[in-house]
Specification:
oligopeptidase activity; Rossmann fold; about 700 residues; about 35% strand; 39 strands; eight-stranded mixed β-sheet; Peptidase_S9_cat; single chain; protease; Prolyl_oligopep/macrocyclase; EC 3.4.21.26; alpha+beta
């Protein structure tokens, strides 16, 4: 999920001191509040007791060992595509396998990468680093100095948290730069950092008391020069405590233009933009709902998530637009402009959406979905004479398409396409042309020869048609007996796409299960309006959409409540909580992973306040009234026959607080409702820290699902 813009974890006591009277009332009546203490002795004892109950049940199942072995084979396979990342003209990759559990950051030339057996050079061995330093380091990426590409800011997480320690690394010597020699070292925080020049950073982070928002993100932006300590950093912008965050964005193009933007996120979806120079700040009239994708020939490439009118020109919601910074500066709106300044260079149709966009030296490249089927286009602005020329790049039909890394110089861009039963292909294209070469192909990792993919639709409560994908055996019978797993997300403008997932394929589909993916409202499948249809007071629409797909599967006799399971995580975990409390009659299995469940207190747990733009604010009585109707923790009731749920989270999750899952399970205990609970003590929100732990995670999931849906 993209529950984004997280910041360093704040002590629970500090958070609770700032809650509203409404939340305080909830605190007084919540018998399980103590479980919000992430690593208190009492909480960890409760977690151990739950794990000690669940693990023997699932791990003793005769299917568990085989599922775990299959999952580890996939997660640690050397046949995986080593996804490339350009730094300069060199290809880098972060790789984990059974030998390198924490992983190695490595590099090779483009030509070597394209060969059947690339010659990799290890740059950082994270297993060796963690062992040498006695740290639980998890890789969180690196940001390298533009143009020279010789120094990088390496992000290291303790156990998988979003908060990271940042250390400067020299790619030439393959060593961290000693602070005594001027190397940048930034202590643990959730932080956003950009290179201003070779020796200056511009960043936001937790600078100390009073510098983080209610959401837990930094709102004070400073510049830091080489050799300075944090206390010497110079403040350039200060947002508000009530914002979600403030962050810098340094944009450069191939012609040497540079613009430094400050984004003040007033809520999760709306931002104010300022241009910063050493001479001061100026607010730019960019759309509040949207974002800046990059810079091309001196113009900003803007993604609009709302209709944006500037200089008497309207760009539709969901479009890509060009506008020059000069045009946006105060007093220049009325200046007569020639060419595309501003103008929309790509606008989606009613059943389309622009999922991704990036900027190369000479093109804008965008992924466009039409009825949840992907395509890739390259856009060239030819000015008054030729307008915008759109060139399609090759992709597989009916696929999920994802943009990867593009070269820092030139127009080379990596991208992937894949389908539910079509293994991922990695392609490399020159965005100025209409061709691409297939560089790598993922070998088939499960047997799909007897599988078919259908796209169907269900009718939601308000009459809206909700598309869904259904993957099943060709020879299945519509008798209501097919074990079926229904997945959805429905939030934050994120789409559920037809991706190739070897774990679902091997651990579920190959064993006779069917798999459905519902494209419910709240997602981004059909542009901003599809997302906005389920925001705040209209949240119930997303849940009704999900139930409609479940009911259609049952009505078609594809499955039945006895054999239908629900799965979701993060915001999808909230969906699972609602599915369980509002329609317990539809399912015999519900996997509630890394969930939001106490929606009355979600804003006072890190980083919940950042999501008020999605869900609303329970401290406001009118908004609390919507939320109370569906908040799963508060809607568990005695005397209801609930399905046996599998609830799972991570102690190290500093994005969605583990207290949600813990309290929900404890409430089920109060009601004497059987359930299974497992909490991984590492891994963070992404659960990707360790392939072995991740293999166990998926084996537990599918053992549980097998027991509930496949056994008769």
């Amino acid at each position: 999920m993209i529950l984004l813009r997280t910041c360093s974890a704040i002590a629970l006591a500090a958070i609770l001191s700032s809650v509203s009277a409404t939340a305080a009332t909830a605190q007084d009546t919540d018998p399980h509040l103590a479980l919000e203490g992430v690593e208190t002795p009492s909480s960890l004892a409760w977690v151990k007791a739950q794990n000690d109950k669940t693990l023997p049940i699932l791990s003793a199942d005769p299917r568990f060992a085989g599922l775990q072995a299959n999952a580890l084979t996939i997660l640690a396979s050397k046949d995986r595509i080593a996804m490339p990342n350009f730094i300069g003209k060199t290809v880098f990759n972060f790789w984990q396998d059974q030998t390198h559990v924490r992983g190695v950051w490595r590099r090779t030339s483009l030509e070597s990468y394209k060969s059947a057996s690339p010659q990799w050079e290890t740059v950082i061995d994270l297993d060796a680093l963690a062992a040498a330093e006695g740290k639980n380091w998890i890789w969180k990426g690196a940001d390298c100095r533009p143009k020279t590409h010789d120094r990088c800011l390496v992000n290291l997480s303790n156990g998988g948290k979003d908060a990271v320690t940042v250390r400067e690394f020299d790619l030439t010597t393959k060593a961290f730069v000693d602070p005594s020699a001027g190397g940048f070292v930034l202590p643990e925080s959730k932080q956003t950092i950009e290179w201003l020049d070779a020796d200056t950073l511009i960043l936001t982070r937790d600078w100390g008391p009073g510098t983080t928002t209610d959401s837990g993100y930094g709102f004070v932006i400073k510049t830091l020069k080489r050799g300075q300590v944090l206390d010497q950093a110079v403040e350039v912008y200060r947002g508000q405590k009530t914002d979600v965050s403030a962050r810098p964005n340094v944009l450069r193009d191939a012609k040497g233009n540079r613009v430094v933007l400050i984004e003040q996120a007033t809520d999760f979806f709306n931002s104010l933009y300022f241009e910063w120079t050493p001479n001061g700040l100026a607010q730019l009239p960019l759309p509040k709902k949207g974002g800046v994708v990059g810079m091309l020939d001196g113009a900003l490439v803007v993604k609009t998530e709302e209709a944006w009118t500037f200089a008497n020109i309207t760009m539709p919601a969901g479009s890509l637009a060009l506008v020059s910074p000069e045009r946006l500066r105060p007093g220049n709106e009325i200046v007569v402009s020639t060419g595309c300044d501003p103008c929309a260079i790509l606008s989606p149709g009613p059943r389309q959406s622009i999922a991704q966009a990036t900027v190369t030296d000479n093109r804008v490249v965008a992924v466009v979905y039409d009825n949840v089927r992907g395509s890739l286009v390259s856009l060239e602005d030819k000015g008054d004479r030729g307008g915008v020329v759109k060139t399609s790049l090759p992709v597989t039909d009916n696929a999920a398409v994802t943009l990867g890394s593009h070269s820092d110089e030139g127009d080379l861009v990596f991208y992937t396409d894949e389908g539910f039963t079509t293994p991922t292909q990695l392609r490399l294209a020159d965005a100025t042309k209409s061709t691409a070469e297939t560089v790598k192909s993922l070998p088939a990792q499960f047997n799909a020869t007897n599988l078919v993919v259908e796209q169907k639709s269900a009718t939601s409560k308000d009459g809206t048609k909700i598309p869904y994908f259904l993957v099943h055996r060709k020879d299945w019978t519509l008798n209501g007996q097919n074990p079926t797993l229904l997945h959805a997300y429905g939030g934050f403008n994120l789409s559920k796409l037809p991706v190739y997932d070897p774990l679902i394929g091997k651990l579920w589909l190959e064993r006779g299960g069917a798999y459905a993916v519902a494209n419910i409202r709240g997602g981004g499948e059909f542009g901003p309006a599809w997302h906005e249809a389920a925001l705040k007071a209209n949240r119930q629409r997303a849940y009704d959409d999900y139930f409609a797909v479940a009911e259609k599967l049952i009505a078609d006799k594809a499955t039945s409540p006895r054999h239908l399971g629900a799965y979701g995580r993060s915001n999808g975990g909230l969906l699972m909580g609602v599915a369980m409390t509002e329609r317990p009659d539809l399912w015999n299995a519900v996997v509630v992973e890394s969930p939001l469940l106490d929606m009355i207190r979600y804003t006072v747990l890190p980083a919940g306040a950042s999501w008020i733009g999605e869900y609303g604010d329970p401290a406001i009585s009118a908004e609390r009234a919507w939320i109370e109707k569906y908040s799963p923790y508060q809607n568990l009731k005695p005397g209801v026959k609930y399905p046996l749920a599998y609830i799972t989270t991570s102690t190290k999750d500093d994005r969605v607080h583990p207290g949600h899952a813990r309290k929900f399970a404890a409430r089920l205990d109060d009601l004497k409702v059987d359930h299974l609970y497992f909490e991984n003590t590492d891994g963070g929100h992404a659960n990707g820290a360790d392939p072995k732990a991740n293999a166990r995670r998926w084996a537990l999931h599918y053992t549980y699902l097998s027991r509930q849906l496949m056994d008769h």
